[in-house]
Amino acid sequence: MKEKKHLTTLFSQIKFYQNKTPPLELLKASVDTNSYFFQLLKEKTIYYFESGDLKNVINDFPPPRNFRVTGNRVEFYRHTWQEIDSLNNFDEVLFSKGMNAVVPHEVLQIRLEGKFNVVHTEVIHGELSNVSGIEEMSRNIARLKEKLKKMGDEGQKIIISHTHPSIDIILIDGQYYSYLFGGLSEKDLNIGQSIFQLNCIPTTIEAISPNKWKYTVHFTK
Hints:
Layout: H1 2-11, E1 15-16, H2 24-30, H3 36-41, E2 45-48, H4 54-60, E3 67-70, E4 73-78, E5 80-86, H5 89-99, E6 107-114, E7 118-120, E8 124-125, H6 134-150, E9 155-163, E10 169-173, E11 176-180, H7 186-199, E12 203-209, E13 213-219
């Protein structure tokens, strides 16, 4: 309780756009309060928003060059164009597994879709900003393939879902805006490409954001 009160006091020094404040545990996971970055935050206004607000944000603020909207589709560019999708029930549950722990951290789960069945791994727990690698994933995918085979099925699509504990925000400093979005990292994308090449099965990699959306990239060729 003392720590929560301490954090509340610290973050009361920060201005939030339209007084929309993210949950305290997200702030705790996202910002080292002893860092130079935290001192910078205190001089700016933070705009925190969730999935349903994203299109309004792009329309209301100076449009960043690394976003594009086509119909109902929103994409973000980091190393490649990444789709931004709303979370489904599976994503919500997976994200809670990492955030409800004593120390928020990344978690990962792999699903293998067959013609008639879907199988998945147990939730794999990692560190604050790292979880699993290609070797461990490959072993898990091999087990899932065997499981489908025993069911008289075969893998048609691999989905690798993992969480990012840090929030995505816009920093407002007078007339200047900085979009601090995570998205899938280069390491994430390399893993997705490698898993696809190793298995020759369409592969999707997803990063679930606390802002209630996920970044998605598909590997099919």
